[in-house]
Amino acid sequence: MTAIQAKITGVGGYVPEYKLTNTELEKLVETNDEWIVQRTGIKERRILKGEGKATAFMAAEAAKELLAKTNTKPEEVDAIIVATITPDFPCPSTANLVSDIIGASNAFSFDINAACSGFLYAMVTGQQFISSGAYKKIIVIGADMMSSIVDYTDRTTCILFGDAAGAVMLEADTEGLGIQDHILKADGSGQSYLGVVNGGSRYPITKEILEKSGSFIHQEGSTVFKFAVTNMADVSGEIMERNNLTGDDIAYLVPHQANKRIIDATARRMDVGDDKVMLNIQKYGNTTAATIPLCLWDYESKLKKGDNLVLAAFGAGFTWGSVYLKWAYDPS
User: Fold this and answer.
1) 201 pLDDT higher than 90
2) Percent of the chain residues past pLDDT 90, beyond the cut
3) Which end of the chain has less Cβ packing within 10 Å, N or C?
4) Choosing from 182, 218, 286, 295, which is the catalytic residue?
5) 18 pLDDT more than 90
6) Domain 180-326 has what CATH class?
7) Pick from 132, 175, 219, 148: which is nearest to 7 by CA?
8) Is 218 a catalytic residue?
9) For the chain, which residues make up each domain, given as ranges?
10) Phi/psi-derived region of residue 294, left when phi > 0, alpha when psi is between -120 and 50, beta in every other case
11) Which of 96, 113, 256, 295 is catalytic?
């Protein structure tokens, strides 16, 4: 019996119109364009504006484009999985809201919170549903409105993050295309170095809690950088070794867009040149769960059927992982 694998059959994306440039940030905090670009590679990031608009809006816009590009009717979708750390509400899930917005009346839906690694976690989860043979079409979305949890008086974090959403369609494959292998990892001791403290059951929203720090994302930059460089690079190298791949075999590294120096370290570990690294951090900044699908969205026209891609991410928690997949279609 031929094994069923999950392949990506389409990509959709959404970025807000408003561009927050480094020059504008110079007016908010003590920083400058040269410092930001040198240390992160970021030149601008997108910020969502508009009353009532939040993560579900962006996710739904990406999903709508995806449906149009794949000629899929909303009612044909079996499931929607949204990776996010900025849900519209504690409940219902953002995926539940997206299913309603796009009219996916036959889909079950849920969120996954694995920070910047969330899209990889969600995609591998979707793969299991497809591989079981029980479901045919699953939309996986990475979406975050990071501007909602960023302190724009904190120069260590406000320069990094932006808002966006990216989506892929997962469908069954029996030709050897799609997701070939994955490695997902986590280390909960990293929570003190990168995360958001307030708003959960441990520190629920009260007047006293709001008056304390912890409502915005915080990170210890040097510690996070060391963990990210080591773990994201190592897991990418591990998945290549496990599948007998060399740098020459890889069409593209698709890395989480957190920091250009982390991306460069991962590429060196994999022995791939700059021409094989998907990069859009300069345009969007770190959009957490959205970065990897946004890369696929930006580079879709350059991908060919059978291309070997290695996806890699590192996020708060800590979480990290890598996915090896064979691209399933040629440019339209």
Assistant:
1) no
2) 79
3) N
4) 286
5) yes
6) alpha beta
7) 175
8) no
9) 5-176, 180-326
10) alpha
11) 256
